[in-house]
Amino acid sequence: MPRSYGRFPSATAQPMTPASRDNPNREADDAPAAGDAGPTRFLPGTGIEIIREPAHRGRYRHVLFDFDGTLSLIREGWPGVMIPMMVEILAATPRAEPAEALHAVVEDFVMRLNGKQTIYQMMRLAQEVAKRGGTPPEPIAYKEMYHDRLMDRIRHRREMLRRHPDRRAEMLVPGSLEILADLRDRGLGLYLASGTDERFVHEEAALLGLGEFFGDRVYGALADHKRFSKKQVIDGILRENAVSGADLLAFGDGYVEIENTKSIGGTAVAVASDEAGRSGRPDAWKRNRLVGVGADLVIPDYRDRRPLLAYLFGDEKGG
To answer: What pTM does this model have?
Structure first.
């Protein structure tokens, strides 16, 4: 049973921006467009791109990881389930555009909301249905429909992991277990936060053998969506440990965790993972979006973890 989010209660509400007044459920729905980060460089002999030099290298005490696409590949391909479902729903509305136009609209808001709880994507879908003259059900009904379809796609992966735990590496971003072990060995506190429902995050983290690294510091979406956000997790880390944002290092492939980390002065590493191919090359779309919201570094996965950690911690240790 998912636990209460009582350990990290909601942060004090912030003043609403004009955009959030128009949509009270926005919580920064739309990521800024990818901007020009200026000249960047790569650590020699690696795929580690340094967008801007982090100001607080060497002082990190806590590390936040996103889950899907950052560590786990169990749900790889989820946009190929969510986007067609939404296009199908919108196509049935009285004032629907052609399918190609609908696909562009849906893809844009689905990916802009990537990293937030799934319910926010469904709330946006309900708004789009109403805009086109339809009568949407409660967003939770759309979420259940999506989850049923997604489970049809990934059930065999979950079952494979149950039967063959020795094949976990197939369902992990390359180098995930190794970098988690290295960070733990350095004495850092590790936290996992996902927009996926918390009970599934716990299940899938256990299937992947990640429980030993995070313990009870695993957070995911709750039935009451207002009681969880990655911002709340970050605020809770800082408050409970009496540390500043400069002590936080975060890894993620969605704009939410990158933006939230940068907003408190932390260091954000964008994991532009090639989920389907596991090629070791960064996904260009992810890279550009995450640079646009302030990522300090971009990596395709954790294969270059030793030089990455040596750089971040300002030493030659590297794990």
So the answer is: 0.85
